[in-house]
């Protein structure tokens, strides 16, 4: 019996030592943090410059004929298409909202029109041919919503409000009695604008801007009185612009903060 108990004690001791000698595996280390891009503040000042091709749509024109109680519409009134140069300064408020103030110069657009009436010398009905031209300065305050970012492309929508200083050249009126010149007028007009387009990143600070702008310019003085004719007024005009330009932002560029993986020492196996 004593021999049996001694053998059992030895067997239990060897089993305990075998379990204690099992390999101890340390818990896996947590993964190193992944580098995340740190974007510099989106706000900042920018300068812009634009050129455009402008489709001019005159709403019409009218004038007083003979007396101030006899207002007549032009039989035809049309403006030729022209071009525009603009500069501006703006501020990027956040990732989606920016505002700017722009100053534009509208190159001379030729006016062609006609009127009908009675010629003074003959007393007969006659038609006149009328030619002039207008040029304009536009001062606008604008706001834009950058809709989102798809790679290097950022589409946007915008609106603006301001004024346009319209300068008409003298109007030359030619009929059977000869050619008569009416002195051109100039005036400030209320103007509003709607915009849509997209900017394309060239560098982190420089963006190309391509878009469309619609401007409505209110009506105003056109030409003065001369020989029982005038003064005249235009009824305002719409401008449809295809625009291209550049914007330079003085704010910081987007930077990525690189976090190197933590040095995790390799832990040896521990035996117990």
Task: State the order of secondary-structure elements, H for helix, E for strand.
Answer: HEEEEEEEEEEEEEEEEEEE
How would the global form be characterised? elongated
CATH architecture descriptor text: Beta Barrel
Classify the fold: give the CATH topology: Porin
Largest sheet: 8 strands, antiparallel, barrel
Q: Which stretches are low in confidence, meaning pLDDT under 50 for 5 or more residues running?
A: 4-8, 18-24, 35-41
The structural domain count equals 1
- Strand order of the biggest β-sheet: 3-7-8-9-10-13-14-17
Strand-residue fraction? over 45%
Number of E-state strands: 19
CATH class, anyone? Answer: Mainly Beta
- The N- and C-terminal alpha carbons lie at a distance of 34 Å
Number of helices: 1
How big is the Rg? Answer: 39 Å
Question: For the residues shown, what is the average pLDDT?
Answer: 83
Percentage of helical residues?
A: under 10%
What would the keywords be for this entry?
4-stranded antiparallel β-sheet; 19 strands; 1 helix; Porin; signal; 8-stranded antiparallel β-barrel; 272 residues; Porin family protein; elongated; mainly beta; Beta-barrel_OMP; single chain
